Every structure is written in C-alpha cells, then in structure tokens.
Amino acid sequence: MNIYPRLEVDLQKIRHNTKTLTELCKKYGVAVAGVTKVFCGIPEIADALVDGGVAMLADSRIENLKKLQNFHLPKLLLRLPMVSQAREVVKYADISLNSELKTIEKLSEAAKELKKIHNILLMVDLGDLREGVWKDHVMATVEEILKFDYVHLIGIGTNLTCYGGVIPNKDNLGVLAELAQAIESKFNISLSIVSGGNSSSLYLLEKGEMPPRINHLRLGESIVLGRETAFGNAIPHTYQDAFTLVAEIVELKEKPSVPIGEIGMDAFGNQPVFEDKGIRKRAILAIGRQDVSVQNLIPIDPNITIFGASSDHLIVDVTDCEKNYSVGNEVKFHVEYGALLQLMTSEYIYKKIL
After folding, report:
1. In the chain, where do the E strands start and end?
2. Is CATH 3.20.20.10 correct for 11-225?
3. Which of 31, 37, 53, 204 shows the greatest Cβ crowding within 10 Å of its Cβ?
C-alpha cells in the first residue's frame, strides 16, 4: 500500500553523484565533507555518501550527528557551536567550525572533562557577512586559540554565497590560502585543512582557478541535487532527480480561477493576487505549506501548473493535462533545495528509501 504524501529517495543516484564529485575533487587534491543536513542525517542516505567516497560527514545539527555515530569517518559540525551545547559538540563532533573565543574556551573545558582533544577550523569572513572573523583579526585570534590545551587548530575555512550571495573566486579564496600560509609561518604550525566553502566553489575546479592550497570543500546540494550553487547550473554527469515528491489528489473540480468576493488576507497574512484564466480543472493535493515551500516544487507532468497553497492543501491546475486525473491519483514533483529541506524536516512526509 502506498503512503502519501511521500518523498522517494533514490540511493543509487545519490551514490553516483557523490562518486562523481569526490573523483572530480580528488583530481585537484580536494577532500569532500559530505553534508547530511538536508536529509536530517538519515543513516541510509549518509551511507550512500560514504560509499561515494566522502572523507567526512558534516551537519549543522548535533541531533543529526548523533544519528551518525556508527560511521567511522570524522564528523564535522557546520553551524557555529552554541556555548550551551559545548559538551555535546565535543562528544558527538570530531571537528567544529568556530569564530568566537568564548565558545572555543568552553569547548576546551568540555574536552578536558571528557578527556579528549577537540579539533577546530577557524572560520574567516571573506565578505559574505555570515560567520567568521574578519581577516584583519585572524592572527590575533589564532594566537589566543593556541593558548587552549584541549582544542587543536587543524585549519581555517570560509563560507560564501549562503547569506550575502558572494561568489567564490580565485581572489577571495586566494586570500584564505594566503592566510593559511601566514598562520603556519608565524606560529610554526601545520594546518591540514583549508576549507574553501560549499557547492558554490565547485565551478572553480573545472575552470582551473581554485587556489592550490584549498584542499577541502563541504558539499551538500551538489551531491543530493547535482547542482552547483554559485550560478545554479546542473553538474555534468550527475542526476538532478534523486528525490521525488509524490502527493495524492483529494479533490478534483472545475472552478473559477479567481475567488468570488472581497479579497482580504490569506492564512499567512498576505493579500493574494489572482490571474483570471476562466474556469479551470483544479486538483487539491494533501500537502501544504506546513510541509514544503511550494515555490521550490516542479511538477513532473509538464502540463500541470501550481495555483498556490494553504497550510494543508496544494492546489494545481490539471486542465491541459493529457492524463485524465481523478481523485486518489498521485501527482509527482521534482524538488529544489528549499523544498527538500522542508520535506525532510516535516514529520508528516513519509520517506521511502529506494
């Protein structure tokens, strides 16, 4: 018996994408941290990343890293640690990204209690204005980090495109590479990781513009959706359809395309605007904005268009479809990253691993 709504996960395609990307990166001396965040650390999917050759598993949530403890690869915490979670960070993450000395001090204290050494990457802000110390403060910050006994600075990293949309290039990543060299020279230490960002940095490899010192990338969307995130292009020889949303039709009726009556606010506080297309055959699907960002759904049937959604219902136009849909039929969608993130997080979406 089929369960709706469901998200179908094709492990073979994810495994293929991972292998394609790890082999590409390996040519340039770049190791891949496979990001498990978007699928909430589900071990079966993480296993496909491991089979595909990732060097470590990375996630932004401690809750997900806990699910991955049976994997023997290093675990990287992507989101800056919370002071309140210092002990859990040290317990469940082998490495964490950091930018605050107060937090690093707490990690050192927790590591001492747990009789461990916790590895950290110092994040450097190269202009995207999310996490990281400003480049002028890097040396002073490193000097303070080296005073802690139970944390080990193993590298530096940066994040680009996620907040400010700043595109990685040979210039800004070149600054990161130069900082790594300067840190090693001044403090007589060796940095094993210089992490050049996420899936938005991939395009530099094929252009031959990745600074040689960059030896680590944190890849998520490029693995699960086969897309680089600097310009949104599909990556050659990868699949873009490893995930498929399947929803069931619960009502199918011909109705006007514009509501009748005075238009006020919808359930989300917005005043909707409608285009008059006359009478249309409208299918209501049992899924809504509580589960998914509707703007990130792509109907697989090219003749279906999305009218809109409430919290529990997705309304689509099936007037021009060759298939004669009926109540109880399923409608399938490709998903973009924003939709995938919400679908995986929603407890109301059944996940079917293929």
Report:
1. 6-9, 31-35, 56-59, 75-77, 95-98, 118-125, 133-134, 151-157, 193-195, 216-219, 243-256, 279-285, 297-299, 305-309, 314-317, 330-335, 350-353
2. yes
3. 204
37 is a catalytic site residue: yes
Mean pLDDT of 279-304: 96
Q: Among 36-50, 138-152, 267-281, which is the least confidently predicted range?
A: 267-281
How long, in residues, is the chain? Answer: 354
Neighbours of 179 (CB within 10 A): 22
Integer Cα distance of 352 and 354 in angstroms: 6
Catalytic residue among 13, 37, 67, 75, which? Answer: 37
Sign (positive or negative) of CA dihedral 337, 342, 345, 348: negative
Hey, is 177 helix, strand or coil? helix
Read off the pLDDT of residues 1-30 as tens digits, 9 standing for 90 and up.
899 999 999 999 999 999 999 999 999 999
pTM for the model stands at 0.93
pLDDT band at 269 (very low <50, low <70, confident <90, very high): low
Distances (CA, A) of 323 to 134, 246, 254, 302, 318: 57, 16, 16, 11, 9
Digit-coded pLDDT (tens) for 247-264: 999 999 998 777 766 666
Asked if residue 343 lies in contact with residue 291, where contact means CB atoms within 8 angstroms, the answer is yes
Q: In the chain, where does the domain assigned CATH 2.40.37.10 lie?
A: 243-353
Is 2.40.37.10 the CATH number for 243-353? yes
Amino acid letter at 275?
E
Strands (E), 215-348: 216-219, 243-256, 279-285, 297-299, 305-309, 314-317, 330-335
Domain with CATH 3.20.20.10 in the chain: 11-225
Q: Where are the alpha helices (DSSP H) in 188-299?
A: 203-207, 221-225
Annotate 311-342 with DSSP letters as a single string.
SS-EEEE-TT-SS---TT-EEEEEE-HHHHHH
Q: What is the mean pLDDT of residues 236-245?
A: 97
